Amino acid sequence: MLYAPVKPFIAMLGGVLALTRGAPALASNIEAVSHIDSALVYPDAAAVTRTADVELPEGATTLIFRGLPMGLDPASLRVSAQASGRVSIASIETRVTPEGPPESVYDGKLKALRSDRENWQTTLEALEAKKAMMIRFSQSGPEKLSPDSRPLDISQWQSAWDTVGAGLAKTGDDLNAAKAKIREIDAQIAALEQIRQKPPSQVRATREASVAVDAESNTRASLRLTYRIAGAGWQPAYDARLETNAGGKAALELVRRATIAQRTGEDWTDVALSVSTTRAQRNAEAPEVYTQRISFYEPPVAAALAGGVGARARQAALPQAAPPQMDRPALDAMLQEKAVAGKSVDAVEQQSTIDAAAYQASFQIPGRVTIASDGASKGFRILTANFSPDLLLRASPAIDPTAYLQARIVNGEDAPLLPGAVNVTRDGEFVGVSRIGLVAPGDSTDLGFGADDRVKIARAPVKRKENEPQWFGSTKTETREFKTTIKNLHPFPLKMNIVDQIPISENTAITIDQLPATTPPTEKNINDRRSVMGWTFDLAPGDTKNITLAYRMKWPADRDVMFETLPDGRTFTR
Questions:
Q1: Residue 196 contacts by C-beta under 8 Å, 6 or more apart in sequence?
Q2: Does the predicted model carry a pTM greater than 0.70?
Q3: What pLDDT sits at residue 140?
Q4: In 75-158, where do the E strands start and end?
Q5: Which residues, other chains included, contact 561 with Cβ-Cβ below 8 Å and sequence gap of 6+?
Q6: Can you tell me the distance from the alpha carbon of 124 to that of 174, in angstroms, rounded to the nearest whole number?
C-alpha cells in the first residue's frame, strides 16, 4: 500500500528529467572585454574595429560590449567571429548606459582595497617593531653582545657594526616600500569614493552593445566589432620639391602626407591605422532635378525688409562658415644618425602601402600607431611620386608685374590627389605654401614654385583718349592702349605665359571693341572667363618681348560707368 503511489511519481520525475535534458539551456550573459585593434580614417569620419576573445559555452549566450563611445552610428554596427566550433550570430542590440560599473562593483573593489591595506598596515607595524628592536640592540655596549654575556672581543666589533647597519638598511627599504604601497592604496580608495559619490548628472553616458550568439559546443571565439563614428578625420598635406637643373630637364618629387586628428571619446592605442579617400558622410546618390519656373521679381514690402520674413530669408541665403581646417603639419626636421664606419647617413622615413580600387584608395600606415582623443594632429608620410614636369613662367602684369614659376604634372597614381596645402621647395630653398585642388588619376595640375626675379616685366599705358560729348544724348568714347615688356635675364631659354584682359559688357548701351593694334593672343578665354586672354611664347636668353593690348569703349554720355571684377570670373547672359 505504501509503495503504490511512489511508482507513478518516479515515472513522472523521469519524464521531467528527460524533457529537461532535451530543452535548450537558458541564455547567459558574458562581458566581452575588447580593445581597439584597427581604425580606417576617412576625411570626415572613421571606421573603428574592436576585438575580443571569449570562451563560449554550449547553447545561447549574450555578449556584452561595454564602454562604447556615444558618437558611434548604431546602424553601422557589424560583428564577425572566428571559432574552433560552429557559432552563429543572431542579433545586435545597442543601448545608452551611464559611464562606469554599477554600485556593487565599486563596493567590491573598495572592500578588496581596504583588506589589502590592512595587510600592508600589519606588515608596516611588524617592520617598525623590527627596526626598533635593532636600534635598541645596537645601543648596547660591545661588552654585552657576546652569547654568554661576556664582553665581545674587540676584533668582532666591526662585524657586529656591519651586521646591524645592513639590517637597518634592509628594514628601512622594506618600510619605504610598505609606506609607498599604502599611499597608493589610499589614493585608489579616495578615487573610487569620489566616483561613487559623483551625482548622476555629472556622469558621461556611453553605449553598450549586446550580441546574441549560439554555439554548438564549448568553444573559444575571436570577435570583431566594427562601427562608424564621427569626430575623426584626416587632411592631406604635401611637400613639393622641384629641381630646375639650370634650364635642363626638371625633376619634381611630391610627398603625400596625412594629418590625422580625432575627438571620438576613446583613445586609439597601438592600433593598425589606415586612411581612405572615400568621404563617409557624402550622399550615396545624385540629387533629383525638378522643374524650374521663371517669373517677374516682386520687391518685398518695407516692413518685411526691416526685420520680418524678408530679413530671415536673406540671412538664410548667406553662405555658411566653412569648417575649420586642421592644422598643417610643420616642416620635417632633418634627422641624422652615425653609421658604424663613422659616416653620417640620412634617416629613412617610413611610407604607407596603397590599396587602390576602382572608386577609392586607402593607405596602410606601417606599424602600430597611438592617437589620443584630444584633437591633437599627427602626420604620416603615405606616398611619394616623382615627375618630369613641364615648366612655365606665368605673369598677370595688370595686377602684379612678377613672373611666377609653375610646374605642370600628371597624376599617374591610382589614387586621386585630394585638396590640401603644399609646402613648396625650389632647388633646396623653401619658397612658400601653396594649395592643390582635387586631381583625379590621369588628370593634370599646375603647382606654383614662387617668383622668378631674373624675369623683368613692365606694363605701361601707351594711349588713353576720351572724346568730349557736344550735345545731350551723344555717345562718350574712350580708347585705351597698354604695352607689356618681358625680358629674360637667364642664361637659358624660358617658356612664358602672359595673362591680361579687356572689360566686357552685358548691356547693349555699352559697347567694347578690341582694336587691331592688339597682339593676337594664343588663348582668348582662359578657363572659360570671357575676354581674359593669354599669350604663350618662348623667350631666348637676353631677349625681350613686347605685347600690346588696345580696346575702345562707348556708352551714353549722360551715364557714368563702373568697373566690377566678377568673383568667379565667369558670366552668363540673361
A1: 103, 106, 110
A2: no
A3: 62
A4: 78-83, 87-98
A5: 510, 553, 555
A6: 8
